[in-house]
Amino acid sequence: MRQKAVFYHAGCPVCVDAERQLAASLDPARFDVEIVHLGDQKSRVAEAEADGVKSVPALVLGGLPLHINFGADIADLR
Predict the structure, then answer these.
(1) Most buried of the four, 19, 22, 32, 38, by CB within 10 Å?
(2) Model confidence over 9-21: pLDDT tens digits?
(3) pTM of the shown model
């Protein structure tokens, strides 16, 4: 069974670079990865916050938010 992973980002250069690196490193046989561009999908900002995301880019894996570098504060995306 594949584990769900949600990658939240805002489309900034830091986020796009992190997305490229993650897409290449997560095994698709083990992970079902969903990419969520919060700049385009503002309705999902509350979901990201509920998942514990404080800044983007962030990967939520197994219910735990993993913050990657710093592109934007989640409050700036509301």
Answers:
(1) 38
(2) 999 888 888 888 8
(3) 0.90
